[in-house]
Structure formats: C-alpha cells, structure tokens
Design brief:
Radius of gyration: 21 Å
Largest sheet: 8 strands, mixed
Helix content: 40-55%
Structural class: alpha/beta
Shape: elongated
Distance between the termini: 33 Å
Number of strands: 8
Length: 265
C-alpha cells in the first residue's frame, strides 16, 4: 500500500506525522505534494517521506489523502481524474464536501471515504468521524481507520451527520480556545500575571476534561457539584444566564453546521 497526500497544511502534516511516528505506514510508502514547496521540503526532510513533483504524480498511489480546502477540491480532482484508472481509495478531509460530490468528479467506481478530524490531531489527541461513499467497503474503512487512527480516536457515522460533526468537533477546539482566552484575560484584569493566569486556566481545562472523561456522570451533574448555593460559581452562572450564554453557544454551533452545508454548493 502506498499513501499519497495532497496538501501538507496542518491536518495533512499531522496525518503524515501520525502515520510515520505510530508506524501505521512506513515513511518509505508515503509521498506528498503541496503547492508550497518550502513546506513540502520541510516535512519531507523531517519525516523522510517522498516528495512528488505534482499532484498528478501522487495520483498513482493506492490511497490518496485529499487534505485540501473545500474550495480547492474541484480543481484538484479535475487534475488527477485522468490518473485514477486504477481506482485508488480517495480519503477526503474537506469540510462540507459529500462523498457523492467527489465520486462524480473522480470517476465511476472510485472508492471515497470522508473524514472530519480536528486540530488536536496535531498532538495525537484528535477525534474524527468517518463515513463511506457508495463504492467504499469494509476494506477501505479499515485502511482509513488505520490512517486517521494514528492521530486519535475514530467514530464511524452515517454521512448525513457529518455537518453536525463539523460544527461540533471539527470547529469545536476553537470554542474551547476562546473560553480559555477569555478566562486568561479576566485573570489578568483581576491582577494576576499573564503567565500565572495562563497556567491556571490551561491546567483547569485539562483537569476538567480528564475528570469528565473518567466520570460516568454527565457534565451538567459535574457542573452542579461545583456550583454551591450562594457561592462564587453560582454568581458566574447568574451572569451567564442573564446574557443567555447557553443559547448563544448553541446558535453559533448551528451556524457552523449551516455553513458546512453551504460549502458543498
């Protein structure tokens, strides 16, 4: 099996690094291409993978990872379609692009797997949803799980749920980063040094996530246990309630899901 990666941005690079470092795929079996030659050279030298001279050259591999932006997908598929006669597995991580859309542009019988990862994959802590196209079967799913499993957890899902996944976990890390950002700023405004505020917030976020992962109870229950009547945490949530923060967050996530749908048009 040879793996070709088109696009060496954050996620493409994370997948390459995950495959190599986890030994899911030997570096000698991976070749990549990116329009940014400096970025391509840097990752090729670091991870000892092959460098293609064009995305057409990558198209000769048995598995092709399409790690490009949704807006670039049509052009990339048009360029590689004449070279897909061997029916390689196309592995797409583009938000909002359905497997059927790719299949129509890749050619009849070309198997497609759609994956929605997230940026914690950069540190091997990602979670990805995976859906199969019409021509993809169990063998293709196994290969895809091997690739994306090298950077975190994998959840198989029906494709109709992918826009929701994109809004929830694909964009999700940014929501948590925003909350961390606001907490750090509040700490500084209360007089803490920035380094101290950062350390407190990041450790609290990590600890809260680990507690939720290890607990059998829902986050709402865990939150209630911290929220003593008349206490400091209750004071926080009274302010949140007045600003309808919960409704704002849910409205934002719904907006992200709508935007994911729009990307396919």
């Amino acid at each position: 099996m040879t793996i070709g990666v088109i696009g060496c941005g954050n996620m493409g690079s994370a997948l390459i690094r995950g495959m190599v470092e986890s030994r899911a795929v030997p570096a000698s079996r991976i070749v990549a291409w990116d329009s940014d030659s400096k970025r391509l050279l840097a990752i090729a030298r670091k991870l000892k993978i092959g460098m293609a001279r064009s995305n057409r050259e990558v198209a000769g591999c048995s598995v092709i990872v399409l790690a490009v932006k949704p807006q670039q997908m049509g052009q990339v598929l048009a360029e590689i379609r004449p070279h897909l006669g061997h029916r390689p597995l196309l592995f797409s991580i583009a938000a909002g692009i359905p497997t059927g859309w790719i299949e129509r542009r890749a050619g009849r019988g070309v198997p497609v797997v759609r994956v929605m990862p997230n940026t914690p994959a950069l540190v091997g802590k990602g979670i990805s949803a995976l859906s199969l196209g019409r021509s993809a079967g169990p063998r293709h799913r196994k290969v895809a799980e091997r690739i994306v499993g090298s950077v975190g957890e994998v959840i198989p899902l029906e494709e109709r749920w992918m826009d929701a996944v994109t809004a929830l976990s694909g964009s999700g890390p940014a929501y948590f980063f925003f909350l961390m950002e606001q907490m750090m700023e509040a700490g500084v405004r209360l007089g803490l040094k920035p380094a101290v505020a950062r350390r407190l917030v990041l450790a609290t976020a990590q600890g809260a996530a680990e507690l939720a992962l290890q607990s059998d109870e829902e986050p709402g229950v865990l939150r209630a246990r911290v929220t003593s009547k008349g206490g400091t945490t209750e004071a926080v949530f009274k302010v949140f309630a007045r600003g309808k923060l919960g409704q704002v967050i849910q409205a934002g996530i719904r907006a992200a899901a709508r935007r994911a749908k729009e990307l396919k048009s």
